[in-house]
Specification:
heterodimer; A: mainly alpha; ABC transporter involved in vitamin B12 uptake, BtuC; 2 strands; B: 538 residues; alpha/beta; Rossmann fold; six-stranded mixed beta sheet
């Protein structure tokens, strides 16, 4: 419960008056949702996914299409898109969880490509490469609340993130969380103990996909315009980088990693296409030297350096 | 009978792992399943516990057909198993491992967990309590909050039993619960198994250590080559002629009496080719090999025999530089090779023919042979094999292939066939051929008879004799002791990581102690029966 309490402190951010900071944290909080989703599936349950950008994108396009083409209420659109992505991912899980390891990675990668191509080609619905403009911002007329500005939308993103964090922590701390981690280590053992492994994997995938889709829906209504590019494979890879930096199985670690990656994204853009090289380096260094994640790794490194600095003093006895 | 297995057969492609297996087990029994390596014991457990669907026959449990049901359906019916490879949840604590075992039975759903409904907290409490009880039962309560990965092998084996119990099933199938355990840990395990029996659990376990089995089992089912060859009380099993020959192997008539004894006087003058002195190998805390000494003179054929788990494979790993040597020395041709890498051993003229053959299945027979020569050929032949000079530099790969074909004509017929499609015996022949391509001074063979038809074993062993007569030094590691000793000059019998007996092959073949190394010394039946149970279930 410490993490949600710490996150309460974030509520003062919009009052600090820095538009840049507010905007940055909105993006971080929205990206934290799919990152948590990937962590549940990949970090805890050990099932690799290189296709989560697709769930995020389907949530965004689904919600956007509902309000732009159908003129429906944005909240209902987001809920509907989240629900449909959840149902779809359950069937997807039925197919792809026949595969394991590299094969699963390739299958999810392929799924990501297919969905992204659909965003480009289904022009009537998605606007094709030009994107889909004119997505209405969120508001709650009954309570006379509108979330048209960064300062107000901040609270929507915050609530969404808190819900995701609390639910994810509930799940991994519950007895079911033990079985999830068991699947990552030995499916044979988990299944011999009476658990239907495929069914459980599918349920985790549904949660993971739905949380990503919900975030995508919010993102669409926040930004007002979506195009296929942000939902391409690069984003799926970035999510994997985030959970590696976050230490795979740590919700606070992943929140920190989302912030870290979002902050470094901007300076890295100057490198153009070469930014992936830096992400790749991060991935290799962290997985090799800091398997507990950057936060834990840096903490351990700091402690070692401190004790290393003290050692010569003690050596003079 | 609560569990009836009738006419079970299991085929993997062309390999028949189980044939017409029939037996029954009643509630409360404590049954051991034994048999030599490759007999089909693990396959049998896999079939009963739903990991494989049998290709023939039927299994009934509590009047319900259970064959072909998946493991997670078996568990609520009351069947749970452990694995030879332990399959621990290493990232979880000891206590969490056991809790994880009970989650399926507690029926806590995923959706309630997300919202932490009261039912979730309730089952978490119940699971915590239950896990503590089972840790108590197996005596791991003091390690409760340690990471499971830091437990010793013996404790890990006890932990997976506690985890299996937590699933609520009362029929336990234990796959080699004692593998890799020292005598003290085995003693603990035996106590725990006896305690479970007293709690009314039914236990079926696969084991190799006959001493251990004789102490705790009330009934032994012996499997060999996929068939049940005996099913009786331990005392009877020990004297059963079929069981003894299943374990020690049957000599092949073709080599019997045909042995040519090489002149010992000639050997005395030369230095040993391989000289192992007081070698001790430990994996973590487990001593796999203790103060083992072995010498091999040039031109000798020496057999190392012993039951599964005796330390044979560890000895071979040490000879290839792949085992953590704790103390002792290995000399190859007079040089200290204790800490050599596999490459150095191969470069010094040692060729290994590994257990399970390890062929390159997607390559043809001839390509497998060429790969056996790979470390010897020059860069030109490796990268530019079409270059006219390649043959000169790399030497005589083609000539060697012809030589191997002369020794094993069968390979010539199959030169373009993929290695993966060969039968067990043909594959073994190819593995030996591949080892010969390296023109070794010392040929090491690990279990060449494993998974090979008897007729083929005779053939292979005959070829080995021929190789020896041509001056090849051979170290033969075999479970099939009789066949190996019939062609060997000398032999070593390993038991529990030590050399128990050594001597000329003829002496060993007649020796009593060899049978003991395989089948163990059973305690007198009366006293254990009383100490063990207090009530009999025969």
């Amino acid at each position: 419960m410490k993490t949600p309490l710490a996150l309460v402190c974030l509520l003062i951010v919009p009052f600090l008056g820095s538009d840049y900071l507010t905007n940055l944290l909105i993006v971080v909080m929205l990206h934290a949702l799919p990152a948590i989703g990937v962590s549940l599936l990949m970090g805890y349950t050990g099932q690799i996914s290189l296709g989560h950008a697709a769930f995020y994108g389907l949530g965004a396009y689904g919600a956007a299409a509902f309000s732009v083409h159908g003129g429906g209420d944005p909240w209902i659109g987001i809920a509907l898109a989240t629900f449909l992505v959840g149902v779809m991912s359950s069937y997807l899980g039925w197919v792809i969880f026949r595969l394991r390891g590299h094969y699963l990675a390739v299958a999810t990668l392929g799924f990501g490509f297919i969905v992204n191509i659909a965003f480009v080609e289904l022009r009537d619905w998605t606007g094709g490469p030009n994107g889909l403009p004119g997505i209405p911002p969120l508001d709650i007329p009954i309570l006379d609340l509108s979330f048209h500005t960064d300062g107000t939308f901040f609270y929507v993103a915050w609530v969404a993130m808190i819900l995701a964090v609390v639910m994810a922590q509930n799940l991994v701390n519950a007895p079911v969380g033990l079985v999830m981690r068991g699947i990552a280590e030995s499916e044979r053992a988990v299944s011999s103990l009476g658990n239907d492994v495929t069914s459980l994997k599918r349920k985790i995938l549904v949660i993971s996909a739905a949380v990503s889709a919900a975030s995508g829906g919010l993102y669409a209504h926040y930004i007002g315009y979506i195009s296929p590019q942000p939902f391409a494979i690069d984003f799926s890879i970035k999510l994997v980088v985030i959970i590696a930096i976050g230490g795979f199985r740590s919700i606070p670690g992943i929140l920190f990693a989302t912030l870290f990656v979002t902050v470094i994204t901007e300076p890295l853009q100057e490198l153009g296409y070469y930014d992936v090289v830096v992400y790749g380096l991060f991935l290799v260094v962290i997985i090799a030297y800091m398997p507990q994640g950057l936060l834990q790794g840096a903490y351990g490194l700091g402690r070692r350096m401190l004790s290393g600095a003290r050692a010569p003093a003690g050596a003079g006895r | 009978m609560t569990l009836t297995v009738s006419g079970i057969g299991m085929k993997f492609g062309g390999l028949e792992a189980l044939r017409d297996i029939t037996f029954g087990v009643d509630d409360g029994e404590l049954v051991a399943v034994i048999g030599p390596n490759g007999a089909g014991k693990s396959t049998l457990i896999n079939v009963i516990c739903g990991n494989y669907a049998p290709t023939a026959g039927a299994i009934e449990f509590r009047h319900r057909r259970i064959d072909a049901l998946p493991p997670h359906i078996m568990n609520p019916l009351g069947i749970v198993r452990t694995f030879q490879t332990i399959e621990l949840f290493r990232e979880l604590t000891v206590h969490e491992n056991v809790m994880a075992g009970g989650v399926a039975g507690a029926k806590v759903g995923v959706a309630p967990s997300l919202f932490r409904w009261p039912s979730v907290s309730r089952s978490e409490k119940a699971l915590t309590r239950m896990a503590d009880e089972y840790l108590d039962l197996v005596g791991l309560d003091r390690r409760r909050d340690d990471p499971a990965s830091v437990l010793s092998a013996g404790q890990q084996r006890l932990l997976i039993i506690a985890r299996a119990l937590a699933s609520g099933a009362d029929w336990l199938f234990l796959d080699e619960p004692g593998a890799g355990l020292n005598p003290v840990a085995k003693e603990r395990l035996a106590e725990v198994i006896a305690r479970l029996r007293d709690h009314g659990k039914t236990i079926v376990f696969v084991e190799h250590d006959m001493g251990f089995i004789g102490r705790i089992a009330e009934r032994i089912i012996v499997i060999d080559r996929g068939r049940v060859i005996a099913d009786d009380v331990p005392e009877k099993i020990r004297s059963d002629e079929r069981v003894i020959s299943a374990y020690l192997g049957v000599g092949s008539a073709s080599t019997r009496g045909g042995r040519k004894t090489a002149a010992p006087s000639k050997r005395k003058e030369t230095a040993p080719l391989l000289d192992i002195r007081d070698l001790t190998v430990r994996y973590g805390g487990i001593t796999a090999l203790q103060d083992t000494s072995l010498t091999l003179m040039p031109g000798e054929l020496v057999a190392v025999v012993g039951a599964n788990g005796a330390g044979k494979s560890t000895l071979l790993k040490a000879i290839m530089g792949e085992a953590p040597v704790a103390s002792g020395k290995i000399f190859l041709d007079g040089q200290d090779a204790t800490h050599w890498t596999p490459r150095q051993f191969v470069a010094a003229g040692l060729s290994m023919c590994p257990e399970g053959r390890q062929l390159f299945g997607s390559l043809s027979v001839i390509d497998n042979l060429k790969l056996g020569r790979y470390t010897q050929v020059g860069a030109l032949e490796r990268w530019l094999p079409w270059s006219p000079r390649a043959g000169h530099e790399g030497g005589d790969t083609d000539r060697l292939i012809e030589e191997v074909f002369d020794v094993f004509p069968l390979l010539r017929e199959r030169r373009d066939q993929l290695a993966g499609t060969l039968s067990g015996g043909e594959g073994q022949v190819l593995a030996i051929g591949r080892a010969l391509m390296n023109t070794p001074d010392l040929l090491v063979l690990d279990e060449p008879s494993l998974g090979v038809a008897p007729r083929m074993i005779a053939e292979i062993f005959e070829r080995l004799t021929a190789l020896r007569e041509r001056g090849m030094t051979i170290l033969l590691v075999e479970q099939n002791a009789r066949a190996a000793l019939e062609i060997a000059d000398r032999g070593y019998v390993l038991d529990s990581g030590r050399v128990m007996v050594e001597g000329s092959a003829v002496e060993l073949l007649e020796s009593e102690s060899m049978a003991e190394a395989y089948l163990g010394a059973f305690p007198v039946s009366g006293e254990t029966g009383a100490a063990r149970t207090g009530g009999t279930h025969a």
